[in-house]
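hi! just following up on the protien thing from before. the input was this:
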Amino acid sequence: MVRSFARREWLWAFLLIALVFISYARVFNADFIWDDESHLTRNPCIVGPLGLKEVWTSTRAVYYPLVLTTFWVVHKFVGLSPWPYHLLNVLLHAGSAVLLWQVLRQLNVRGAWLGAALWALHPVMVQSVAWVTELKNTQSGFFYLLSIFCFLNWEEKLRMTRISRIKGAEEVLVKYPRNPRYLWFGLSLLFFLPAILSKPSVVMLPVVLGLCVWWRKGRVYRRDIAALAPFLLISALASAWTILEQKFHAGAIGAEWAQTWPERLIIAGRAIWFYLVKLAWPYPLIFIYPRWKINSSQLTAYLPLVAALAGLLALWLIRAKWSRAVFFALAYYVVSLFPVLGFFSVYFFRYSFVSDHFQYLASMGPLALAGAGIVTGCNRLPAPRRLSALSSTSRHGAVVTTPLVGICGVLLLSLVFLTLRQTALYHDLVTLYTRTLARNPGCWMAHYNLGIALNDQGNPDGAIAHYRKAIDLRSSYAEAHYNLGRLLVQKGLLDEAIAHYEKALEMNPADAEAHNNLGATLFANGHVDEAIAHYRKALAIKPDYADVSCNLASALLSKGDLDGVISYYSACLAVSPDQAEAQYNLASALFRTGRMDEAIAHYQKVLELRPENVDARANLGSLFLAKGRIRDAIAQYRRALRIAPDNVAAQSNLAWLLATAADPSLRNGSEAVFLAERAESDSSRSQNHAIILRILAAAYAETGRFPEAKGTAEQALQAAEVQGNSALSNALRDELTLYELGLPYHK
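and the predicted 3d structure came back as:
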């Protein structure tokens, strides 16, 4: 008999889990969405360079440290492939469904399995299960139910022990020994901690446990309150922590969260009924619901809250068996919703006062009540056949009528279909926001995020259209102005981009990135001084902003301020040393100011980062030449020419060394002629033509071709005099004298 019952238990558990997996089959092909990026895919604590230490010791984890720890562990094994994270969410949801079934059985709730199934398969739960970041809900919910399960076990064993003391029933004392009772209590308290570290909205657990005690005993005694004291202490600390996090780290401060208390009461009343209606009729389910406009001057606006409170009071006063069950379910529902009813500022209220994932735990009460009601109603119908299991009124027996099986089968299959259809909404970002806008076209956040998604897919025109729509709906949307400005720059619409950057800075003058981008756009539009001013503001806000330091250095370079150039490129590279372009520009500025050793070091760093940078090699060769390191200079010029055989600077400088080096072992006249002739043919109209002619003349002289050397030197002298280059002219006259005497020029 016992084995048969145990087998049925496993079969019902397996069926519940199987239905959950069927309902959520589509999510295994779904991508990451919305804030999965900040919590997981681009979170430095998960993907680096930070790690678990920062998860637990900094604000990087916001107030979900255990969720980020789970992400960190999963990422170590599977990287950023989405399906394992979706699988984890579904597994936790299925596990919570089985736990809910067991908790309802502990509470002797009719239709425990059906109530758990209604909750597990209801489409309102899709947002919590199909959205990876809402591991906050599924993980916290699993530990929350474990904590309740253990507490009810402890409470049951404690009750039976007290009965045994009263009646002297020794067999009960054997069945419920003292130590295991406290083990269950310790486990309950232990599981509460990971629940609250996964999502602090479970802070209402002590009140829920008190309701469970009341449901079982009919009242709550002092000893019950004493048992709940450690839970209440943890809840109080977590509540204070969460309120501070929402205000000072999540940023839930400002006009969007400045509701008066009358407005908050109105929001709470509407939210209670809103969530109930969605459970009864889950259509339409929208990712972001329209944000209500609240008018506290209308007395009718308070009716939902008054009706909810009056209903609970009436249920309490009626004292009938049915009203007690309804009161228990609805009291649990309101208590569980309390943290998100609007009495406290929640960041998500920026977009909407309600969301499906807010009622993940609260919905257990009404849906368990619905399951009990269905079973009770069906069992009152005449039934020729009776089956066992679904409508369990105790742990040890139940009856299921044929009508109940039929009704439940149709209902559960309908929920599976609705949930399966709803999961398609979460397939990817474009699908999510497109369908959200189809039902909530005024959702400025969806327009903005759809713009980001379209731009990531290579559709900047579509992104621009949605950014503009977001701004039309919310003119003070600084982020939309900023991103629109970025795309307008890419389209070459600099004046309009400047206007949007300026608008973004009106709303958020402390945005260092907006100052930087506005500076870059102004610089590209020829407004150098204004660009420099914005770069300086960006650095005042964020002194270690490497990109701004580099941009400011580039702007100062255009004004010839080499000291400023060196200072800001150095600051940039102190933060971000692997920027090859900044290394090159700093090396060039140091070269121009005569700081050769420093310039050499930075050119060498450029070549570590980009070995194929020909200009850096040619310039490094010139620095070695200036320092008298002739062999090193020749080596660099040769390596530059292997990369770019037509590089005129490397050709001409190497030709000069091969023709004029003081060390005979380094000279190679024929190669010098070959290189100098190529350089001369490629630079016939350049400003350096006179210098290259001088080099060619020296190469001819080195090979003994003095008539050609003399003629070429005379051409170079004529070009130098036209340019007014007296130093070059004087050098050429001295070299001409040597060529007339049949002597080559050597350094």
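The mean pLDDT is 90.
The two ends are 109 Å apart (CA to CA).
cheers
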